[in-house]
Amino acid sequence: MLLHLSTWQEIDDYLKRSKTVVIPIGSNEQHGPTGLLGTDWLCPEIIAHEAQRSADILVAPTFNIGMAQHHLGFAGTIALRPSTFMACIGDWCRSLGLAGFEKIYFLNGHGGNVATIDAAFSELYAEATYAQRNRGFACKQKNWWELKGVFGLAQRQFPTGHGSHATPSEIAVTQWGYPDSIKSANYAPQIAPTGPIREALDFRARYPDGRMGSDPGQATPEKGAELVAAAVAGLIDDVAAFSAEVAPA
Ligand SMILES: [Zn+2]
After folding, report:
1. CB 191 within 8 A of CB 160
2. How far is the CA of 92 from the centre of ligand 1 (A)?
3. Domain range holding 159?
4. 82-105: per-residue pLDDT in tens?
5. What's the rounded Cα separation, in Å, for the pair 38 and 30?
6. pLDDT for 231-241, tens place per residue?
7. Is residue 249 part of a domain?
8. Cα 209 to ligand 1 centroid, rounded to whole Å
9. Separation of alpha carbons 54 and 118, rounded Å
10. How far, in Å, from the CA of 88 to the mean position of ligand 1?
11. Is position 74 within any domain?
């Protein structure tokens, strides 16, 4: 069930049977010479949208801009600084909490978001603590590549050249989701360098074509289909477990 294609009455009805909502969250940022700018929000969106076709899961609109200041040296990147990002996550959660949602599950597609999402959760929990509420909503984030079965599959598909940015696994997922937008390039070197992440000018100098440690030329839509299937199964299980968590009395 997609929130943006539902009416408020349908959401009211959904709340009678579940208090859980899934929010795909990612980033709009450069992904090397062949990766789509939307890769990090498209992957969790593709997986969540696919999951809600076979399970009674409500999926909110995708939070598609994240903490990506280090990619701003490349055209098309749009970033929120951590403080803005935290404020936005907070208001998304407060809005959903006000409607009656008690379990807010973020399916994340961008490693650079993780620390800030956790900090935003800590702010929300601090609000509940200071208001002496012990039954505030619960928040969870999960990286899609950490869903059960996905990481091992990606390791088997891409034993070398997986890397950490513009990876063949994330690009394969978008190739499956958007086969009309598959790009090609000659990679030099075939496997990109690795190193630290600092500010945008430093990033562009270290990683001239935008990749980190990856050879995206290994991506295929068929491998993407396998990854999506594994991630969908993992997501359905993980959301069910989160929904079943009971707060202590
Ligand atoms: Zn990415």
Report:
1. yes
2. 23
3. 3-244
4. 999 999 999 999 999 999 999 999
5. 8
6. 999 999 999 99
7. no
8. 14
9. 29
10. 21
11. yes
